[in-house]
Recover the amino acids of this structure.
C-alpha cells in the first residue's frame, strides 16, 4: 500500500505539501494540488483517518452505543446520527449494549480501543458514577435518552414523565375512566417515569389505576400480546390501554382482535415512540412522537463539537418533550 512518502517522491514535492493536500490545507498551488491528487488516486493511496484527525483537530469517527441493532427505534436513532456524520465526513462505529451492565461497559471500551473521542451513548444499565467517569475521560462523550444532573450538559433526553401524563390525559379527555397499562419489565427509568406520569394524570382526574390493571412484559410485540393476554385472563374491565411503546401496542391490538374485541370500538389502544410500525397497524396507531432522530442529530453535533475542543456550557441541558399523534386507535366513549 502506498505511503505519503511514496506520493511525495512520485509527485516531486515535499511531505509537507502532500500533507496539506490530504488535509485541504493552504499554500499549495492549484496545479500541484491536482497533480498530487491524481498520483494518490493512481497509486491507490488512502489517508490514515486517525492521523488526519490529529492534524485537523477533528474526530475521524463517531462511536454510537445502542441497546439493540434490530429495534426500529434504534434504527431511527442511528439514522439521526448518520445525518450529522455524513455532513461532517465522519464515519460511524456502532456497538450494541443490550441493556446489560457488562455489555454496555464493553461496548464503550471497544470504542475507546479504537481511539474514538466522540461518542453518543445510549446506556440504561450502567450506574451514574461510571458514566460520569467516562465523561471526564472522553472529550466528546454525550448521553442520549438519559439525564444525569452532574453531567447535564452532556445529556440529550426525553421528559418521559410528561409523556406518560400526556398519554393518560388524552385517553381521559376522550371519556375513558377504566384504563389499563402494559409496561416494560426492564428495571430502567423509562417505564418508571412514563408510569409515574400516567399515575399523576389519573390522580389529577380523581380516577384510580389499581396494580391489577398494570401488566409488565418485554417491550416488543410478543410482550404486548402476553401482557394483554394476562389482562384478559383476569377478567379486568377497561376501555383504553396505554402501552409502553408502539411494538407492545401492536401486540396488544393483535391479542384483542384475536379475542373478538374490536379496536377501537370496544377498546382504545395508545402507543409511544411513533416508529414506522405505528402508521401501518390496523387501525393506525394513536401514539406519542418521540423525536429520537432530532435528538440523535443533536447528540452527534454535541459529541463532535466537544471532541473538537469546545467546553460544555455549565447549567445547560437538552430536554425534549413528546407530542401526541392522533390516528385511529383511540376514540371517544
Amino acid at each position: 500500500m502506498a505511503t505519503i512518502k511514496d506520493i511525495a517522491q512520485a509527485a516531486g514535492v515535499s511531505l509537507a505539501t502532500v500533507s496539506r493536500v490530504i488535509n485541504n490545507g493552504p499554500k499549495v498551488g492549484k496545479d500541484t494540488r491536482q497533480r498530487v491528487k491524481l498520483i494518490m488516486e493512481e497509486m491507490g493511496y488512502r489517508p490514515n483517518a486517525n492521523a488526519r484527525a490529529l492534524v485537523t483537530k477533528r474526530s475521524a469517527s463517531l462511536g454510537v452505543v445502542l441497546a439493540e441493532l434490530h429495534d426500529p427505534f434504534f434504527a431511527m436513532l442511528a439514522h439521526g446520527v448518520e445525518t450529522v456524520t455524513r455532513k461532517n465526513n465522519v464515519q460511524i462505529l456502532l456497538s450494541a449494549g443490550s441493556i446489560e451492565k457488562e455489555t454496555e461497559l464493553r461496548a464503550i471500551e471497544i470504542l475507546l480501543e479504537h481511539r474514538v473521542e466522540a461518542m453518543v451513548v445510549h446506556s440504561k444499565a450502567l450506574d451514574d458514577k461510571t458514566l460520569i467517569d467516562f465523561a471526564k475521560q472522553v472529550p466528546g462523550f454525550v448521553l442520549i435518552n438519559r439525564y444525569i444532573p452532574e453531567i447535564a450538559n452532556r445529556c440529550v433526553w426525553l421528559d418521559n414523565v410528561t409523556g406518560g401524563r400526556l398519554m393518560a390525559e388524552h385517553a381521559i379527555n376522550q371519556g375513558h375512566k377504566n384504563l389499563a397499562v402494559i409496561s416494560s419489565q426492564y428495571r430502567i427509568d423509562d417505564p418508571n417515569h412514563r408510569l409515574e406520569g400516567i399515575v399523576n394524570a389519573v390522580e389529577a382526574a380523581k380516577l384510580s389505576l389499581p396494580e391489577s390493571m398494570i401488566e409488565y412484559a418485554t417491550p416488543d410485540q410478543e410482550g404486548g400480546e402476553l401482557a394483554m393476554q394476562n389482562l384478559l385472563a383476569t377478567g379486568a374491565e377497561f376501555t383504553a390501554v396505554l402501552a409502553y411503546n408502539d411494538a407492545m401496542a401492536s401486540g396488544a391490538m393483535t391479542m384483542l382482535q384475536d379475542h373478538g374485541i374490536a379496536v377501537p370500538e370496544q377498546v382504545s389502544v395508545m402507543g409511544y415512540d411513533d416508529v414506522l410500525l405505528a402508521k401501518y397497524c390496523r387501525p393506525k396507531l394513536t401514539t406519542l412522537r418521540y423525536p429520537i432522530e432530532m435528538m440523535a442529530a443533536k447528540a452527534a453535533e454535541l459529541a463532535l463539537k466537544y471532541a473538537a475542543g469546545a467546553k460544555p456550557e455549565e447549567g445547560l441541558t437538552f430536554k425534549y418533550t413528546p407530542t401526541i399523534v392522533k390516528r385511529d386507535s383511540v376514540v371517544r366513549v
Summary: The radius of gyration is 25 Å. The chain has three domains: 4-47, 60-158+292-320, 160-290. Residues 150 and 176 are 40 Å apart (CA to CA). The chain has a mean pLDDT of 93.
